[in-house]
Amino acid sequence: MKTRTKISYIILKYDDQTDNIYTKTSNNENHAYEVPAFDYVQKRDSTLVDAKNYIIEKFVDFNTFIDENHVFIPFIDVTFENDIKVFTYVAVIFESNQDMFSSLNYESWHRVKYDHHKQYWNLTWGNGLTDPVDFKFANDAITDYTANPRDRDELTFNNVMHFVTEQTNDFPILGLMSGNKFTMKQVFHYQDLLGIETLKAGNNATFENQYSDSIQPIVDDRLTTSYKIKSNYLKKISL
To answer: What is this structure's pTM?
Structure first.
């Protein structure tokens, strides 16, 4: 059976001008939600590291520079299209608020917010070279990952956000939207903007204790304590 490999990616980016978190989408004639993706010519002995490096190189072509520690590939989907077996590396990328918004003519940015009452993801059009179209779809991955045999983009997004929510319990992954250092207040603010509900520490000491395996304080002369993810932890979790 013939095979094909592609990479789909969900970007999460904080914008301090509008104080919102955005994700990039691909435009199409049907005005349907579409996850950005590109084909990946996979070598026989390639690994997840190779796929990750390919993503970083691809973004350089878009004039966007991504930190290698801000790219995660939580799972690989396997589907079938016209007797072709398709392997899809699903990635989530955290762009920092220091990166500029970059859009090609077939892309848009949508603000991300979860509605807990209705259990829906709301993606509100923010900017891009297309007609403004908003998206709303049910979160089918509330308690666990959802099988995606038909490669539905909404399920891809749901599964990625389930991964992000799970990781938030173990390390402050959303802090990566501030770059390589962040404060406790920034992490909690990003959680609130997305609508992610997790247990919040009451102070820095509790925060440090909660994430003792994954973060370390940055020693500087600032009054507010900043943190970074331990390099060994990032290497373990990002592969």
So the answer is: 0.93
